[in-house]
Records
---
Amino acid sequence: MKEETHCKEGPALETLLVHGATPFEPVTGSITTPIYQSSTFRHPGLYESTGYDYSRTINPTRSELERTVALIEGGKYGLAFASGMGAISSLIKLFKSGDHLVVSEDLYGGTYRLFNEYYGRYGFSFSWVDTSDIRLVEASLRPETRALFIETPSNPMMKVSDIRRCAELIHRRGGLLIVDNTFLSPYLQNPLKLGADLVIHSGTKYLAGHNDTLAGFIVHSDESLAETLRLAQRSEGATLAPFDAWLVLRGIKTLALRMARHEENARRVARWLREHPRVEKVFYPGFEDHPQYALSCSQARGHGGMISFYLKHKEDVAVLLRKVSLILFAESLGGVESLITYPLVQTHGAIPEAMRLSAGVNDRLMRLSVGIEAAEDIIADLDAVFHDCI
C-alpha cells in the first residue's frame, strides 16, 4: 500500500517528511530549522518590517512548521497552535450564533466539552451522530447546518466514516467538512484529497511522536477562509511556541518509520488480544471483518497504531491499569511508548453517560496506543497482567 504515498507532482511523502518545506536554512546552510526563541523582532524603520513582528502573530520556526504540515497533508495553508483544542477553538470562529454542526458522537471527550459546555452558550447547536452511518448523517442535517465535524477512525471505538460521502452531503448545502485526522496522521490518510475542507490534528500525538510537547494544527486550501482563520489564531493567542514547533519539526522527520512500526505492532497485539480468553472484543480497523474495513482501505494507506478492546470482567480493569509495567497507564496517544487509557474516566469523562454508552464506551473498555517497542514485549506485559487476573 505504501507506494501510494508517492506524489505525481513531486517527491514521495517519505521524502517530504524528512526534508520538510525548507530542506536547509539558506543563510547558514543549517539542515535543521533554527529555534527563533524571540518574542519580538526589530523593525528596520517606520512602516517597515522584516515580515516578522511579534511571535504571537508570526515566528520563523512556527512558520516553517506550518508550511511543512500543510505540505505533507496536501493543503495550501497550515496553522500551528499550542494544542489540538486551541486549533478547534479557533476553527469554530468560522461560524456564528445560530449555526448548527453535526459531530461524530464517538470522539475525544475534550471536543465534546468544548462544543457543548462552552460554544453552546453562544448560540451554536450540535447534533452528535454515529457518522460511520451515512444515513444517520443525512438525517441529522438541517437548513442551518454549516459543517460536519468527523473523527475517523473514531476515538475510541475505531469506527470509520466515509470522508468522500460526508463531503458530498455537506457540500450540497454549502457547508464545510472538518476531519480530525489525528489517529492516522498525514502518512496514512489525507482527508483534503478526499473532499474535506479542513483537517485538524492534535500534533501532540503522532506528528510530534515522542510524548514531549503539545501542539495542534489546522490545514486547508481555501483562500476564502485563510485570513479569517489566521486572524482567529493570532487574536486568541493560542499559538505554538518556537521550541515546541522545533520539537514537532524534528518528530515529523521520522513519522514514516514510526507509523509503519506502530501499525505493524498494533496488528500483532490486536490479533493476540483477540484470542485471549479475558478479552471480549477488539476494535481495530485492520481486521478484515471490521464493519468498515473496505472503506478504510479505500481512503487510507493503513490502519494505524490504535486499538480498543472490551475486557470480559470489569474487575480486571483495575488490575490491568495497576500492574502493566512496560505499557504505561497514561492519557494521550501516538508517542513511541505504549500507553493504555481508561476512556470512561479519562479521555471521555466529560461525555454524558447515555451518550458514552450509545457510542460503546462502557466500564470495560480499554484504549491502547501501541508504541514502537518490540511487539513481543508489549504482548508479554499484557500476558503477565492477564495471568494475575485469573
---
Amino acid sequence: MAKDKADGGIVETIKTVFWALVIAGVFRTLFFQPFWIPSESMKDTLLIGDFLFVNKMAYGYSKYSCPFAMCPISGRIFASEPKRGDVVVFRHPVNNTDFIKRVIGLPGDKIQMKDSVLYINGVAAPQEPDGVFEEIYEAQGPMRNLPRCENGAVGAGGICTKSRFIETLPEGQKHSILNIDPDGFGDNTEVFTVPVGSYFFMGDNRDNSQDSRYAQAAGGVGFVPAEYLIGRADRIMFSSAGSRMLYFWTWRSDRYFKAVE
C-alpha cells in the first residue's frame, strides 16, 4: 500500500512538472520571448548581459512573432502602432538576426542627424547634459566585446567614459543617450523619409550602433517594415556582467526588474 502511494506521488509530480512546462512553453510562445543583450548599442539604457522578456502582444502578431502557424505569411494581425521612444526587438530585414533598438521615426517622418543632434521633421530633439557614463575597459559578455571610449585608449582595467545626455522626443518622452565621437560617421546624415508601413530605429549609444542611419547593403538596419517587429522590451528581469550567467559574483542586483525607459 505504501509503495502504491509512493508510486502515485511520483506520477503526480511528473504530471505537475509536465503541465507546468507545457503552460510555460505556451505562455512564452504566445506572449513573451526572452532576449539577452549581446552588444553595447543600447547603453546605458541596456547593458551587455541584461536579460529581458519581449512583449510579443504589444503590436500584434507578425510572421516573426507569431505562435505556431496562426499568422499570415506577410503583414500583421491585431496590430497596434509602435510609439516613438519604444524599445523594440525586431528581425533584421536582410540577415535574419534579432536586433533591439529605439523607435525614432514613424511612417512619414523625416529624420536627420546634424552635429550629433537628432532632428525629427525639421525640429531638434533637445539634449541636456547628464554627466558621464563610466565603465571598466575590459572584455564584456559571452562575445567578449571591448567598449569604445570617448577618453581614448585607456588600457585594460582603466575607466572608459562616454558623455551622457538626456534627449527629449517630440511627445515628451525622455531617455538617456551616449556620445563617443562628436563628429562620428552617423552624427551628420542626409534626411531620411520613413516609408509608409516602416519604422526608423536608432541605438542609444549613438556612435556605436548599426541602425537605420546605415543602409542594409552596408550592414545597417535601414527602414524596418512593420511585419519584422517582434515585440516591445518593457522590463529587465536579470543582469549579469560576466561571460557566463552562472558567475553569480558578476550579477547586477540593482538591475533586477528595472523598467526599460
---
Amino acid sequence: MQATTQLLHSIPVDPQTGAIAVPIYQTSTFVQEAPGVNKGFDYSRTNNPTRQELEKIVATLEGGTVAAAFASGLAAIDAVIKLLESGDEIIAVDDIYGGAYRLFEKVYRKFGIKVTYVDTTDLGAINRAITPKTRLIWLETPTNPTLKVSDIRAIAATAHRYKLLLAVDNTFASPALQQPLALGADIVVHSATKYIGGHSDVIAGLVIAKDPELGAQIKFYQNACGAVLGPFDSFLLIRGLETLHLRLAQHSRNALQIAQYLSAHPLVDKVYYPGLESHPQHAVAAGQQSAFGGIVSFTLKNDTEAAASALVTGTRLFHLAESLGGVKSLVSHPASMTHKTIDRATRQKAGVKDSLVRLSVGLEDVQDLVSDLETALTIVSATGEKEKKKLLAHC
C-alpha cells in the first residue's frame, strides 16, 4: 500500500456514529464508573480521544511506536531534553533554529546541561566533539535556515556505537519526504505548526520514539509537565495530515523552480536548496529524502541588512512573517527575526549572513511567485543604486 493511501486509511471512522472525520472531544474530564474505573480516559491533560488518534496516526506515519503531541514545537523539544540530567552534554547542529538555541542556552545551560555546536555535515567534527558526558546528538536536517543536510544513517551509526541518543528535527522535510527512524534515529521531533498542520492556523509539536520505553518516558513528561495539545488543535493536525503528501509534492516542485530562478539572477549571491546539484549535500539529500521540500534560502551580493529588508518588504505574494510550511508563501529575514536571539558572530559563523532571506514557497502558481520575486529584486537594485549615490556624495 502506498504511503498516501496508508495515511488516509489510518484515520479511523468513528465507531459510534460512522463520522468519517475524527470527532473533537472538547472535554476536560470524563465520568468514571467507579473510582479508577473508566473507559480509558480520566482527564484530558493525561489523555484525550482526539489527541490519542492524532498520536496513533503520527506514530504509524513516522514508523515509531509512541508519539506525543505538545502545545508547540518548543514544548516538544523541551520534553526530549528532559530525558537528560545535570552534567550531561548534547552535540547539536551549528545552524540551529533560534528557538532551540534559546532553550538550550538560556534555560538548560543553567541546569548543568552543556551543548556543543558543530557542523553535523562533517562526521569527523561530531566524533571529535563526543566526550564521556555526551548523551544526545541533536540534528536538524535540512537545517533552518541554510538547509544543510546531515547524513542520518552515518550519524546514527556513530551515535549507537557510543550508546548515544540521536534526535532528528524533521520539520523541514516532514514524514512525507523523510523517515529518520527508518534511517537509524531514536527520536523524531516536529514543529507540527509547519507542514503537518499546513495551513498557518495551529501551534503544535510532536515527538515520536522508536523504542516503547523511550516513548513512555516522553509520555510521562507530557503528562507531568502539562504542555499538551488540545483536542481542537489535534483535530486541525489530523485534517492537515490528510493532504500532507499532496502539499509537499507541490511545495517541492515550486521550490525547485524558485531556486533555479534565483540561481541565475545577477543580484543573488548564493542559493541554499538541497534539490540543486550545486548544493554541497545534494547527493546525501537525494539518498534520504524522496523530494527536497518547500524552503529556499539565499543571500544577496549586496550583503547588508538594508538590502535584505528592501527585498522582504518588497514582495506582494510572499508575506513577511515568522513561521513556514503553510499553503501561502512567506518570506523572512532570519538575522532579525527567527535567529535574532543568536549573537551575530555565532550566526555569521553558521552561515546566517545579514542578507540571508528565507522563503517558504507555497502553493500559488509558481510563475506568479517568480514575478513577485523579480519585482522585489528590482527594488533591491534601486536601493543599491541609491546607496552608491549617497556614498559618492559623501566622498
